[in-house]
Amino acid sequence: MEPTELAHSPFAALTFIAAPALLTNASSVLALSTTNRMLRTRDQMRELYLKSEAGSVSAREAARHLNLVSRVERQATLIMGALYSIYVALAAFASSTLVTLLGVGLEAPLGSWWLFATACVGVALGFIGVGGLVKGCVNLLRATNLSLLNIHEEAGLIREGPAPSGPKT
């Protein structure tokens, strides 16, 4: 597509900015769901804290409890890292959309060099955004694996049945 075609056709300009705008929206949804996951992890840690405050658990249960606390803490760290990366991606995609729109809008008065420069900046911001999404998704996958380990451990405890209680009187 010729640079002058972008300036003369609003549909060409719209097509030119659609990808970063769509990725901005997808990043926003991912950030919202990741925030919800972070809040759920905080709730899990609060439940574990209250359980530890109740006391009177066997040595086996205490070791399992500490293992669970460590996993939830690691999960929260991974989710926070993912959230940071997703916010970087969101900022990069939104900036890419704005830079691209400015490039197309100001190409006529400033010349085709302006369009080329803003297109290069827009692509660079797009790469930063994709990198942020990839890193965020990897962290979310690792956090999900920790959550799955917790589920497997709790399922095993349920299958074992209730812990034997002391002698009945």
Protein architecture, described:
With 169 residues, the protein is mainly α. The chain has one domain. Helix content is 89%, strand content 0%. It is built from five helices and no strands. The longest helix has 49 residues, at 112-160.
Summarize this entry quickly.
The protein is mainly α.
Task: Identify the notable features of this structure and list them briefly.
169 residues; 5 helices; mainly alpha
**Measured distance between first and last alpha carbons:** 87 Å
Task: Please give the share of residues in helix.
Answer: over 70%
Radius of gyration, rounded?
Answer: 25 Å
**Which structural class do the helices and strands define?**
mainly alpha
Strand segment count: 0
Blueprint of the fold:
Blueprint: H1 3-8, H2 10-54, H3 59-105, H4 107-110, H5 112-160
